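Input (Dipeptide epimerase):
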Amino acid sequence: MPRHLEATIEAFPIAGTFTISRGSKTEADVIVCTISKDGVSGRGECVPYRRYGETMDGVMADILAVSKAIEAGLTRNELQSAMKPGAARNAVDCALWDLEAKQSGRSVAASIGATGQDPIVTAFTLSLSDAAAMGADARRNRERPLLKIKLGTADDESRLRAVRDSAPDARIIVDANEGWTGDNIERHLTIAAELDISLIEQPLPAGKDEMLSRIKRLVPICADESVHSTADLSSLRDRYDAVNIKLDKTGGLTEALVMKAEAQRLGFQIMVGCMVGTSLAMAPAVLLAQDTNYADLDGPLLLARDRPGGLRYEGSLVYPPLAELWG
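Output:
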């Protein structure tokens, strides 16, 4: 009996509003790819991202376009050249990983050498707002060990100081979402160093970040929009200290594992990040993040409801997935 591929769109309400410098949303729209064979099904979830030119309809079309090849036995390795990196390939790739694990009885964790079942600390994201609101949000979450704050405005200093004052003991990641400029980045870096910020993510726009190779990086800088796949890494060594690996950028766990190994070889710190999605999207990323510097896998914590049987979160700890969810 051949394999069968299906793709569905699902929506999950966000708890309140999630805001970054590029806009706000109140709902997480995800696409789930399911590949079945002989009564066994594997699933993968992706989140199309408009910043990279992706739409729900376009990603759905890309997934369905490989359905005949999947039914004919296309392998994960063959998938890497059959589809371009991005959300669509991520959903298909992770569905294949899940199907293979369920068919073989060998977990994905065992297959990739991530067999430790210890939980990892994930960052908890504070949405962009005014300084008072962000300070209050930080105060409510001050016991979390790692906070990530969304910035990228004309007045990030007041927001930074409000958050640090409200959460004096937390490690803090700043995500500027390409919102800083050549005119203000050195000032922002000085303030970040003063406030003991641990990491700054994508301060300048992708493609316009060469200045990072010429200035003193007082706080480690992490590439996000500037890095998508393994091929990008070597050109970023002079301007970034860390890279954010997201499965929706790499196009799945298969490429992410290659990228992680190469990033480690090149000496980058590694963050494993996510879009705002459910536990199904986080599950493979939790395994990928087992021995990295930072995990930013709080997507389900930002939702008003997760899918049934989701990941186990205890505060900022996230546990590896159970086989019933994924892998």
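The CA atoms of residues 68 and 209 lie 41 Å apart.
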